[in-house]
Amino acid sequence: MKLTHIYLASKSPRRQQLLRAIGIQYTIIEVDVEENNHAIDNPTEYVLDISYKKADAAARKIKSGIVAGADTIVYLEGKIFTKPSSEKNAIEMLRALSGKTHQVYTGFTLLKVPSMNRLQHCEVTDVTFRLLSDDEIIEYVKTGAPMDKAGGYGIQNDLSAVFVDKINGDFFNVVGLPLTRFYLALKQFQNA
């Protein structure tokens, strides 16, 4: 089944790459949405709120179509980790994750314009890090790679892939979009 063209409210090159990989055609709509919501401490509510705000901001820029917004965070011991605010913050995040299991939450929102019908989903994946040395953490942070990634690491295409000891759940969710869930949701939504 051919999926409809969508509008993507995301500048993430990883999400774009994932959509291309499964043949979804999209147009980027850049939106300026604050991605830190300190008023919400529930990780599911957090990612669904931010993904909705992104999709809603993009939906206001088109006349008709389906808009997708997404947000990914790392959750450890009651604390939400977004993108690091500084190298020091990235080091602190990676030290906290070292030797522990954390959860990666990705929420996505689909909005149909002009009806503004909404479909949302949140996926959770457990990721276990091996014990990391301070040297490994500092060398990784020096590359600049952690600065645009939730929790300060990317599981794909960089050194932090070797930080991961085990994954329980959807690998693509950790990259930034749970592909199977997104595909099924879009398929359902375009026919609704």
> Biggest sheet, in brief?
7 strands, mixed
Number of helices: 6
Mean pLDDT value: 93
* CATH fold assignment: Maf protein
What's the architecture in CATH terms? Alpha-Beta Complex
Distance between the termini: 15 Å
- Give the radius of gyration: 17 Å
**Strand element count:** 7
How many domains? The number is 1
Which percent range fits the helix content?
25-40%
Strand content: 25-35%
Per the principal axes of the C-alpha atoms, what is the gross shape? elongated
CATH class: Alpha Beta
As residue ranges, the low-confidence spans are: none
What structural category arises from helix and sheet content?
alpha/beta
N-to-C SSE string, H for helix and E for strand = EHEHEEHEEHEHH
Describe what this molecule looks like in 3D.
It is a single chain. The protein has 192 residues and is an alpha/beta fold. It has a single domain, classed as Maf protein. The chain contains six helices and seven strands. Strands 1, 2, 3, 4, 5, 6 and 7 form a seven-stranded mixed sheet that branches. A hairpin with a 3-residue loop joins strand 5 and strand 6. Helix 3 (87-97) runs antiparallel to helix 4. The two termini are 15 Å apart. The model has no long low-confidence stretch (mean pLDDT 93).
